[in-house]
Write a structure and sequence with these properties.
- The protein is α+β, with helices and mostly antiparallel strands.
- The chain has a domain of 105 residues: START domain (Alpha-D-Glucose-1,6-Bisphosphate, Chain A, domain 4), CATH 3.30.530.
- Helices cover 23% and strands 41% of the residues.
- The protein contains 3 helices and 7 strands, in the order E-H-H-E-E-E-E-E-E-H.
- Strands 1-7-6-5-4-3-2 form a 7-stranded antiparallel sheet, covered by helices on one side.
- Belongs to the AHA1 family.
- It holds the Pfam family AHSA1.
C-alpha cells in the first residue's frame, strides 16, 4: 500500500512572492489559515527555518466536530522545516492531543508555481495522523486555500 498523501491545489490570482508572504505573516495566517467553521489564534511566532508557531483553532460550533485538544479546540505546534522564498514552505505539525490517533508529526509542504497571472499553490500532507480522515482533511485544506485566495485577491 502506498503511503498516504493528502493533496489539494488551487490557482490563486497573486504572485508567488505575495503567496509566500501570506504564509509567513502572523496576521495573515490568523486571518486565512483556519478552515470554514473555525477561528484561529497564534500564540507563538518565529518565522525562520527552525522556528515556527503555535496555533489554537477553535470550532465556532463544537457540537458537531469535537476538537483534538479539547472539546472545542485543535492546538498545533508548527515548525518551519524549509523556507524557499517564492517557491516552498515546509511545515512540521504536531497536534496537542491525548488520543494516540492524532499523535505524530505531519509534514505540510506548500509548493508555489507561477502560472500566468497567478500562482498554483499545491499543499501536500504526509504523515497525517490516522484519526484525521483523508476526505475531511482535503476539504479543510481546500477551505484554507479558498480563504488564502480571498485574502490575497481582495486587494
Amino acid at each position: 500500500m502506498a503511503a498516504r498523501a493528502d493533496r489539494v491545489s488551487r490557482l490563486i490570482a497573486a504572485s508567488p512572492a505575495a503567496v509566500y508572504g501570506a504564509l509567513l505573516d502572523r496576521a495573515a495566517l490568523q486571518a486565512w489559515l483556519p478552515p470554514s467553521g473555525m477561528s484561529g489564534r497564534i500564540e507563538r511566532w518565529d518565522p525562520r527555518p527552525g522556528g515556527g508557531f503555535r496555533m489554537v483553532l477553535t470550532y465556532l460550533d463544537p457540537a458537531g466536530a469535537p476538537g483534538k485538544s479539547s472539546d472545542a479546540t485543535d492546538v498545533a505546534d508548527v515548525g518551519f522545516a524549509d523556507l524557499v522564498p517564492g517557491e516552498r514552505v515546509v511545515q512540521r505539525v504536531v497536534f496537542e492531543a491525548d488520543d494516540p490517533a492524532f499523535a505524530g508529526v505531519m509534514t505540510m509542504t506548500w509548493d508555489l508555481a507561477g502560472s500566468g497571472d497567478g500562482t498554483e499553490v499545491t499543499v501536500t500532507a504526509t504523515g497525517v495522523p490516522s484519526g484525521i480522515g483523508q476526505a475531511d482533511h482535503e476539504a479543510g485544506i481546500a477551505s484554507s486555500l479558498g480563504n488564502l485566495a480571498a485574502y490575497l485577491e481582495r486587494s
